[in-house]
Each structure stands twice: as C-alpha cells, then as structure tokens.
Design a protein that fits this description.
- The protein is an alpha/beta fold and about 325 residues long.
- It folds into three domains: about 90 residues, Orthogonal Bundle (Arc Repressor Mutant, subunit A), CATH 1.10.10; about 120 residues, D-Maltodextrin-Binding Protein, domain 2, CATH 3.40.190; about 100 residues, D-Maltodextrin-Binding Protein, domain 2 (3-Layer(aba) Sandwich).
- It contains eleven helices and 13 strands.
- The strands form three sheets. A six-stranded mixed beta sheet has the order 4-3-5-12-6-13, with helices on both faces.
- It is elongated and about 85 Å long.
- Belongs to the LysR transcriptional regulatory family.
C-alpha cells in the first residue's frame, strides 16, 4: 500500500480523540492549541479518506456515529503504541529502556535471578520477569507478550529471532543411594520398570525431551507422577522414585548429598540440555547480547563452581556457551 493511500495518520487520530473527549470541536481546538476551523478540517479530511461519517453534527455536543465508535475503540491503542515506540527509541538512544518483559525457565531462578535483577536495574525503568515453563514463554514471545526468553527451546525454526546460547549440561539419572548405575540400555529399562519413574510434565520442554529420549531407547514406562517444577521431581525421588533430571534442575530444587540420593550418568552418552536467550531480532539493540554476557558471567562465576563441587563426575560435561 502506498503511503498516500493510508486512511489516516497519528495526528489526525489525536485530533479525533480530542473531539471525542471534549465534546465539541471548539473545545478540542483549545485543548490542542489550534483553531476550531483547523479541527473541523482535520475531521473532514479524515472522514473523506476513510469514507465514513464519524460525528453526527446535527446534535450538540456532537455525537459519535456507529463508525465513529468503532474508530474510537482502536484509535486510543494506536496512538498509545506510537507514543510507546517513540519513547522506546529515545530510551535506546541513551542505553536505557522503559519496559522489558522476560520469561525465565524455572530451573534457572536460583542461579540467575540476583544478577539478572542487578542488570535490569541498570538498564530498565520497569522490568517484569516471569518464571515458568519454556513452552508457555515461547508462545508469549511469538505473540509479543514477552520480549526475551531464557529457556530450553531456542526456536530454531522461527525466523526473525536472535539467539544467544548460555549453558549446556547433561541429563542425569537420580536414584536412591542404594541403586547402582545401570550399565546399558537394558539395565536402564529394568531400573525404570522396577522403581517408580518420576517425570517432568510433558508440558515442559525437558519433559518432552526426556520422553523422546526414552522412545529412542525403546523404553516404555507407565505414567505415574509428573511435575512441572524441579522440586516436585526431586520430592518424588526422595519418596523412593527415580528420575532423569539435570544438575541445574537439581540445584534449583535444593538437592544435597544428605538427602540419601545418588546421581549417575545415563548409560547412553550425548543426551544434553542447552539453555539459550532468545529475543526478537534488532528490536533492542545490544541489550540481548549484554544480558547474555551478564548471565554467562553469572553462571561461570557464581553457579558453575557450586555445580562442579556437587556434581564432580559431570564437571567436564557442564560448560558455558560462547
């Protein structure tokens, strides 16, 4: 569509909304600092371009027609969005933005929230951090209800996004302390058939990945307990169950050696989880990169040393991504 065929511009919508609020074109002119004839001309041009009558001028004060009421429903949001875009551009120019919404996967809350909070206080006026499942955050990102996500899904098939890998870790087997490491696929199948298998909910990305792993191993386990949260999976293990989890998930749940559990490598190597920051491309300048670098530093300096101490056999398989 050519620019000169657009039905209205933002200034015309602002004049229209002022007439709606003030009740007369003269009052709208006083509010806007322009003459009443100028207001009338703007409204007449707007009606001409749209091809509808917006005001019933036979009554005083002027009343909206049915078409005018429809436009009023949308015009306020359109004008507000334009002002928000203008403000965001000015904020980006000075390296600070007014509003940012981030979705953070649950298993990173303990590891990252303190340093994330410090970063956000330096670069945003209003930040909203929503903890939860990666799947729901991914949907919110695509619907523009969230600006960044930090989670397990990098949405590699979706165009228009930028991705900053943060951390990679192995999936591990969590069992009662008396259970020995299964030597092979058959041993894993027998263990999962013997003890209650505690699952991450299939609503979660990790839960879905674990189910795909079991299918590849041709291991079928009846459904028992499922949890969205790492703490729920750990609780099931404390009650005699066995689970597939990760060091970060266990850290988030408060795992400790005093719990009477043991963490074994899976008998099949290469089953890993990658955490990534995903943002819409080129909307926030260097902010996603700066946040990714902050989170990598936090993971390297604050989180990884603790994970290595607790899960020493897996030290070589946990790494900060570049």
């Amino acid at each position: 569509m050519a620019l000169n065929t657009l039905p209205f511009d933002v200034n015309a919508l602002s004049v229209f909304l002022s007439v709606c609020d003030q009740g007369t074109m003269a009052a709208a002119g006083r509010e806007l600092g322009i003459t009443q004839p100028a207001v009338s001309q703007v409204i007449a041009d707007l009606e001409s371009r749209i091809g509808v009558t917006l005001f019933d001028r036979s009554v005083r004060p002027v009343a909206l027609t049915a078409s005018g009421m429809v436009l009023r429903q949308y015009a306020g949001n359109l004008v507000a969005d334009v002002h928000q875009i203008s403000g965001r551009l000015r904020d980006m120019q000075r390296g600070r933005i007014s509003h940012l919404r981030i979705g953070l996967v649950d298993s990173l809350s303990r590891a990252l929230l303190r340093d994330m909070s410090a970063f956000l206080s330096e670069c945003t006026e209003h930040a909203v951090v929503l903890a939860g499942l990666t799947e729901s955050h991914a949907a919110a990102l695509l619907a523009r209800k969230i600006d960044f996500i930090v989670g397990v899904d990098d949405l590699e098939d979706v165009p228009g996004l930028e991705r900053w890998p943060l951390f990679e870790e192995p999936y591990v087997l969590v069992c009662p302390q008396t259970v020995e490491r299964p030597a092979d696929r058959q041993g894993l199948a027998e263990l999962l058939a013997e003890l209650p298998f505690v699952r991450f909910s299939l609503r979660s990305r990790s839960g879905a990945e674990i189910e795909r792993f079991l299918r590849r191993m041709r291991i079928e386990i009846p459904f028992g307990q499922e949890f969205d949260l790492p703490a729920g999976v750990l609780a099931g293990c404390l009650n005699g169950g066995v689970a597939i989890s990760t060091p970060l998930c266990l850290n988030e749940a408060g795992y400790g050696p005093e719990m009477g559990l043991v963490v074994h490598p899976l008998p099949v190597a290469g089953f890993r989880r990658r955490l990534t920051l995903v943002a819409r491309r080129r909307e926030f300048g260097r902010l996603p990169l700066n946040l990714a670098e902050t989170l990598r530093k936090s993971l390297k300096e604050q989180c990884l040393p603790s994970l290595v101490r607790q899960f020493a056999p897996f030290a070589a398989t946990m790494r900060i991504m570049d």
